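Why does this matter for the project? Reviewers at the last site visit asked to see concrete outputs rather than summary tables. In response, this paragraph embeds two records directly. Each consists of the residue sequence and, immediately after it, the corresponding structure tokens. Nothing has been edited or filtered.
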Amino acid sequence: MMGCIMQPLFSGQNSVAKDAMQTSGGSSLFSAPRRRVSLGLALSAFSSLLAFGIAAPAQAAEKQVVIFEPKVEGANLGELEKQALDKALADAVKELGYSPIPKLDLDAVLQGEHAGKCESAECQVRIARLLDAGYVLRYKLVLSSDVVEQAVKPVPAKKEKEKEPEKVKGKGKGKEAKEAKEAEAATPVQAAPVPTGPTANWRFQASLFNVTLAATAESALNQPSECPQCSSSQAAQNIAELAKKLLIADKSHPRGSIEISTTPGDATVFVDNVELLGKTPEGKALSVKTFAGKHKLRVKKTDYQSHEQEVTVSEASPALLNLQLRPGTDPEKVVYLPSESTPRPKWRVGLGIIGIAAGAALIGFGGLAASVDGQPYLDPSGKEDFTKVYATKTLAAGLIAPGAVCIIGGVVLLALPGDRKKSSDDKSPLSPSQTVSLGGVGSGTGLIFRGGF
């Protein structure tokens, strides 16, 4: 019987233990994988957020556009008109999902870098990189006449019925007179209609430089636009449409890459005269992303000759360049400036004129004397005396010779330029160890001095 009693007891304990084990075992078998999945999802989400947090600022930087002030030619453009153009460009950039750099930030960087107007492409790209921008929008305009609008001050509106307030006022101190005064004080001031402003023929030329790709797409380079007989508001709309066209052309233009390797490495690479941030690594290739098409490539390294060539970039495959740099230095570029001379001294000009006039007079008298040489003598009564003749050959020669000298001297005094100014660009004369050679037409090298002679 004891065994019968203990058996159910142990059976109950075993069943409880079994249930407990099943519960514990079920928890360990099914909840652990769930924890792993949850942990994996959490790590994946965190990684995605981290990657998005890193990529978002980079993408935002590429979307930022620096808009520089236009270069105005032909006529004057007012400050209000410049502001209208800037606002139209900023709105056009925002409409396509880009972000224009605030003008205050641009002015602060220009002032800090002492860049002045910063009209060259190299300067503008450098400023854009300092502002962490991806694009440079630059343009110039040519005006046929001044476009300067004057702000008009608001004027109070004229009252249609001036007699009624007088009648109300005439009633004295009543409530109606007080209400009339309050209504008169509350009358709104109407602004005069904004003038359309003067019109002119506008000609635009704009370019969009992609700082990230260190190049300008052919479809976004020096694009022209005209707006004949337009006001400043119409011209602003015109330049806004041109900016949209450039941004769309930049995105739609095919892209490619250049793989550049140099021996030795650590060389600076320029694409379309813009310096890249990285240098060629030793024994490896530098990958340069740019637009498809033709580009001017230049490689420089200290104590080595620069290498320049035109590269055609294709969308299908990268352009491979393996350059062997030669030791040496680049030939010096010599720029010849026109000589500047001071004005001729007044005394020289006056003396030259006097000399020419005196010489002409002497030659005239000498010619008259020569014309009477050998002619019969005239007595006081005017009759010719053939027994005597005039001998004026010597006198004529004595007048004509110094007259010619005076004329020549006067011409020389007038022809000689003033003293030449010595500019700071003047260089010392060539040393005996230099030669002169002429660079190719269109190469921009001019005269090159090198070698020895």
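We now turn to the second protein, recorded in exactly the same manner.
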Amino acid sequence: MENKLDIKGYALVFSSYVMWGLLTFYWKQLTMLLPFEVLSTRIIFSFITMGLVLVWKKNRLFLSYLTEQKKRSILLITSLLIMANWVIYIYAVSSDQIVQASLGYYINPLISILLGLLLLKEKITRLQTIAVGFALAGVMYMTFGYGDFPWIAIAVAMSFGFYGYYKKKENLDTLNSLFVEMMMGLPLAIIYMTWLNSNGGSHFVSVSIWVTFLMCLSGIVSIVPLLCFTEGAKRIPLSSVGFLQYIAPTLMLLIGVLVYDEPFTGEQLFSFILIWIGLSLYTFSLIRTKPRMIIKTNEEVGQGKVIETLADTK
């Protein structure tokens, strides 16, 4: 059964990454807002949306996360990491640095590999080691050869890499843990929005009805792709999920260069080529993995063990 082509699974995962990539257009519509205002709005409406989803699913697993001190402490860390990842990405879009943000999400899977190797003592094959080497060479070339340190890309990759590491290490359910993370960020978001409004700096209702409407949608645009991914990833092999995840940063790159006319120099192209070679080699190594290993890993995806290292909760 595991080898049967699951069209619905592929369609769900494919659509989730397409949505994450195309959401660049959505965030670009909010560039008149301060990044922390967009972040705060996203936290508030994501908390509300995920709360409704969990009520609908009659899922109360998050209660155990709140009562267990260890998981509560881990979720405080992951809450800070995901908020940092979101606000950096929002800043990148608003400051016309979508290309660099896309680079970060290309690098992220390889950061996860390194964290697994160094912190979780996972084993990687020789081909995967070569793949990581190509990707690191691309980042190093952009940093030293081009002379422009890609801090946005590194920050995006590192924040989400460590986010995935903690979620995998503690085997935390995707929706319930994200709900608790938003709950932890909720007081800060409310305080910031209250302060901003009292100082006349809030744009929530002062710009246009359209902007207000888009801000209210931030919870839905955050949760819908994640739900599609979570359901789809249970149905298809991890190697396929790993290959499809590059759809989102590729769309970001194309949108940044072709739609918003962001510069894309020869040096950047060479760096991206090195990273693409690394990603191709790594994906090829997954495809070569024995079927029994793919099936085993796919079961882990269904249990939520590695979803956070693959899902782009941008």
